Amino acid sequence: MVMGHAADGGSALVLFSGGQDSTTCLAWALDRFDHVETIGFDYGQRHRVELEVRPGILDALRHAFPAWAGKLGDDHLIDMAVLGQVSETSLTRGVEIAMQANGLPNTFVPGRNLLFLTFAAAVAYRRGAKHLVTGVCETDYSGYPDCRDDTMKAMQLALNLGMDTRFVIHTPLMWIDKAKTWQLTYEIGGDTLVELVRKETHTCYNGDRNHSHEWGYGCGQCPACDLRAQGWERFRFSSSDNGNV
Predict the structure, then answer these.
(1) N or C: which end of the chain has fewer CB atoms below 10 A?
(2) Coiled-coil regions in this chain (predicted)?
(3) Of 177, 17, 178, 151, whose CA–CA distance to 91 is shortest?
């Protein structure tokens, strides 16, 4: 059962990759706005399977939460192959995931979130959507500078100045870790939504959909799997203490 929330009204565009975080943000938006559309980006990522699971997640949300079905509008998939062409990262090249001399992992794709938000804003402008929702986070993350709260505030200002409009960038996960992200999923849609996120979404950087774990599918070795698994364990432990399971 979806926990009720006073609707904010209006239209929102959710940056929806097919992963845990963006799916949680999509549910968050569906619980708040009158009309919600989604946008994804194909930039040649090695874990392209995340794009392949997106339609199934959308269908599952419509089926599991009929109250959301009428709110969930068009899905937009943008070809961003040029980003992969100019990036030398482990997400866009067949190289091993590793730390770099600058202190960032080579999973960091420079400019990715900046470009995503710019293209999302352009689509939102055309579609008449005021709200942009993204799953960036400063808590359980790899230090990506384009996930920081300051970056989001700067992007909101730049987009509003450059398009002479009043977009609002929402970052529901900015100050919570992965365990609390699972908890937010539960608070929005109960066990039904938790199971949907666990089984249908994809986080693994290696694109592994063959190995199933308690927390979902993935290689179980990459940084994305590790974060998701650790968050799941803390969430289940906390849920047991609180009588949620």
Answers:
(1) N
(2) none
(3) 17
Look up residue 227 and give its two tokens.
Answer: 């974060």
Does 26 appear as a known binding residue?
yes
Q: Is 147 annotated as a binding residue?
A: no
- ∠204-88-111 over CA atoms, to 5°? 80
Q: What is the pLDDT of residues 171-192, one digit of tens each?
A: 999 999 999 999 999 999 999 9
> What CA–CA distances, in Å, run from 136 to 28, 59, 162?
14, 24, 22
Q: Which domains does the chain have, with CATH numbers?
A: 11-176 (3.40.50.620)
**What was the pLDDT predicted at 190?**
98
Strands 216-217 and 212-213: antiparallel
Q: What percentage of the chain has pLDDT greater than the value 70?
A: 81
Q: What are 200-210's pLDDT values in tens digits?
A: 999 998 889 99
Does the annotation list 21 as a binding residue? yes
208 annotated ligand-binding residue: no
Q: Of 90, 100, 18, 109, which Cα lies nearest the Cα of 55?
A: 18
Side chain identity at residue 131, one-letter code = H
Ligand-binding annotation for 18, yes or no, is yes
> Does the annotation flag 222 for ligand binding?
yes
